[in-house]
Design goal:
This protein is an alpha/beta fold. Helix content is 45%, strand content 14%. An 8-stranded parallel β-sheet has the order 1-2-3-4-5-6-7-8. The longest helix has 17 residues, at 103-119. The structure holds zinc ion. It comes from Lysinibacillus sphaericus.
């Protein structure tokens, strides 16, 4: 069984959780905001397979100062029960449909990077296309080594820079039908690769109308194995080892 390196477990119905967990060795459960952090904490206390990450998803309105302070205080108080800071990042998709000033989002991301540094935790990033370069600027500025760019998409420039810095990516089930993700798999070293579902986010192609669950990662492993010219067992072993190494599991 595989490790799901990025899932929004708190967004599923409570009764679905044990069934989802049956399909994975471990899951890295990320959070969207304070309420989501509290739910993720409960899940991690209830199930040993659930490793909690706490953060604020960037594809939504920014928290006000009071909300931000409450979230940061809460994360510091629960630092012993977290595996990483995440999901945090920059609002790439929101920017396509809203007129927004990205500067306060960048400032918030920098605060989360400093928090990860303070708590000695890895950071889980939502930073795609040109935003990946901004994230790299901030990570490099603060000398951060343990960064996981989940569902990464971006330029050759970003790919080269991230590989040079030893940053990890995770491959989503859309690698089965998206040429862009297949191209990324060929370019990125297997040693810096994990797999994820980003569930409950839905997928297309062979996953059309299916509820997203960790068993979908088996298909991603097949694609990775084919593109890297190795067996599925080798791909599964390496990706699992990478995830254990990165998250200190
Ligand atoms: Zn996510």
């Amino acid at each position: 069984m595989l490790i799901d390196a990025h899932i929004h477990l708190d967004q599923y119905q409570e009764e679905e959780v044990p069934l989802l967990l049956d399909e994975a060795q471990t899951v890295i459960a990320v959070s969207m905001d304070l309420q989501s952090c509290e739910k993720t904490l409960k899940l991690s206390r209830a199930y040993a397979k659930v490793k909690a990450a706490y953060g604020f998803h960037p594809e939504q309105s920014l928290p006000n100062d009071r909300e931000k302070e409450a979230l940061f205080d809460w994360i510091r108080q629960h630092a012993s029960e977290m595996i990483a800071v995440g999901e945090v990042g920059l609002p790439y998709y929101r920017k396509q449909t809203h007129i927004l000033d990205e500067r306060p989002f960048i400032a918030l991301l920098e605060q989360f990077i400093l928090l990860a540094q303070e708590l000695h935790k890895p950071i889980v990033l939502h930073a795609v296309y040109e935003d990946a370069l901004i994230a790299c600027d901030l990570l490099e500025k603060h000398g951060i080594k343990k960064a996981h760019f989940h569902w990464f998409k971006g330029s050759e420039e970003a790919i080269v820079r991230m590989i040079h810095n030893g940053y990890y990516i995770s491959i989503t089930p859309d690698c089965v039908y998206e040429a862009e993700i297949q191209d990324l798999i060929t370019k990125y070293p297997l040693e810096l690769m994990m797999v994820e579902t980003d569930g409950p986010w839905p997928f297309e192609g062979p996953f059309d109308k299916a509820r997203t669950s960790p068993s979908m990662m088996a298909k991603s492993i097949e694609v990775i194995a084919t593109l890297k010219g190795i067996t599925t067992q080798e791909a599964a072993n390496t990706v699992t080892r990478n995830t254990k190494l990165f998250y200190d599991l």
